[in-house]
Amino acid sequence: xxxxxxxxxxxxxxxxxxxxxxxxxxxxxxxxxxxxxxxxxxxxxxxxxxxxxxxxxxxxxxxxxxxxxxxxxxxxxxxxxxxxxxxxxxxxxxxxxxxxxxxxxxxxxxxxxxxxxxxxxxxxxxxxxxxxxxxxxxx
Amino acid sequence: xxxxxxxxxxxxxxxxxxxxxxxxxxxxxxxxxxxxxxxxxxxxxxxxxxxxxxxxxxxxxxxxxxxxxxxxxxxxxxxxxxxxxxxxxxxxxxxxxxxxxxxxxxxxxxxxxxxxxxxxxxxxxxxxxxxxxxxxxxx
DNA sequence: CTACATTAGTTGGTGTCACAAACTAAACGA
DNA sequence: TCGTTTAGTTTGTGACACCAACTAATGTAG
Lengths: 139, 139
What we know:
Two copies of one chain form a homodimer. The first copy, chain A, is mainly alpha-helical. The first copy, chain A, has one domain: Arc Repressor Mutant, subunit A, CATH 1.10.10.10. The first copy, chain A, has helices at 6-28, 33-42, 49-56, 60-72, 94-114, 120-136, and strands at 76-80, 88-92. In chain A, strands 1-2 form a two-stranded antiparallel ribbon. Chains A and B meet through helix 1, helix 5 and helix 6 of A and helix 1, helix 5 and helix 6 of B. Chains A, B: Residues 1-135 form the HTH marR-type domain. Chains A, B: InterPro entries: HTH_MarR-typ (IPR000835), MarR/SlyA-like (IPR039422), WH-like_DNA-bd_sf (IPR036388), WH_DNA-bd_sf (IPR036390). Chains A, B: This is MarR family transcriptional regulator.
């Protein structure tokens, strides 16, 4: 019954599955996909609003509200820049970091289930191929 | 430099890449991701609003507006059901079908680029693994 | 040193999209 | 026939995305 969907449909459907799983886990913590990406990006950075807009590929005016809402929930804070009085740094709080890690754990469990039909070597092969595709890509 | 990201991060990042490509192609035709999914689902079905809600995992009240907007653009139509005067069938128009196919072609080109770093056998392997994961999944 | 341009970020306005709750109309069932 | 489901829409709210216009601070040319 192993009907091969082809690389285009295969990848498309796979990504809907995986993104759907992530979206559900995020929603369980009242997070949108964008919020998850925000937390993810902030794990190892403290960017300004403009850099954040570039990283998330959003308009900078979208960042204001995004950070407002996350900030209202105590997930991030705006720290005024030392050197530039116009600028701010958006920083993950401890609470934000903890939530990000929790979502990552939950999502990891989902992925484990998704690929549970593959043998261990197959899982490693899939992981390796995915990594290769990512490396190759512009980002 | 082939740094393996692990199955979780690897799949996550891969899906962001692929979904990003699809979203951009869709946006080029003024389509949201949801609109694309709508057109995709309608390619081989003419579901009612409730079935559509189930297929897209949306509330049925969300379907009304979605179909309204697509219908205003002439991409779909509401056909009153023969047997049940309450019900409608949502049907792809020729214009809608043509647009769906165009987006699919564009997206296919993007995928080809994305996986162009893989050899042909590797691409087939990735496709096969993706298909296996999809089959296994509940849907 | 001042005047102009640039940069950082916010504000205000619009539209999409998602939900929940309430509603209308048709169909079903006892 | 009368109450209950079922199909779909309406109404109201909020997140999110964009653009254009704005404020405030920086930078730079003369």
